[in-house]
Structures are given as C-alpha cells and as structure tokens.
Amino acid sequence: MRQFDLAPLYRSTVGFDRLFSALDQFVTSDAAPTYPPYNIERTAENAYRITLAVAGFTDQDLSIETRENALTVKGERKGDAKQAEFLHQGIAARGFERRFQLADHVQVTGAVLENGLLHVDLVREIPEAKKPRQIQIASGSRPQSIEGSVQQAA
To answer: Which of 68, 85, 94, 119 is most buried by its number of CB atoms within 10 A?
Structure first.
C-alpha cells in the first residue's frame, strides 16, 4: 500500500489536525470492516441517513453512541441458553462495532429499526455565528473634519 507523507500539510495549515488525522488513519488502515453492510444517503440539503443491515438483531441488542464527532453503532446478540446445531450457518450472528466520523455540527436526530435495517437520521445544524453573512459596503468617501482654528500672522 502507498504511504503518504502528510507532514508538509501539518506545517502549513492551522486547525485541520483532525482532518489530517482521519485522512492518515484512512490511508494507513489495513482492512476496513465490511460487516454489517451499510448505505449513506442524503435525504435533504443538510440531512443524512445511515442504514445498516442488522438482520437478526433486536433493538435491545443494538446501541448507538455519539462522542466527539464520531458515531458508534454496536451490536451484540444476547445468546439463547441453548445452542442449535447448524448444518450450515450463512446468517452472520457475530457482534460488531461500526464507527462513522461526523463533520462538525452534525447531530443524530433519531434511529429506527425496521425489517432488519437500522436507520440512523442525522442533520447538520450550523450555528448562526458560523453561517456566512453579507457585509454592507458604504459608498462614497468618509467626511473628514479638521478641528481647530487658523491663526493669522500680524
């Protein structure tokens, strides 16, 4: 796998540490987890939905947590007292932990489990102070006032 040196970017930017750390982690990660499969869709301009295929899991088996711009979905099946003897087991029953990096100001608004799919809804709410605003430009020149009096020589 290719190795990228991000050191020049660290030296010439301010405030992008988290972005470069995430990029570095993405580039250097050996094997990305593939279970459970998921979709990420945009449902509106500032709204998103993550859908995970969690067949066989109940809402008591799943947990969703957000912490510092990271969304973590964990699944751990509560095993039955008796274990069945499988001739073929093609349905995954293993636990999982899936992490998603969230952009700034993205909040989880809800989650619903239906038909073996876990839907996690997110929305990006930018605070008023962070939104772009128009600055009025005054036309003309500023009037200058000169205070004092001129004395004449006699």
So the answer is: 119
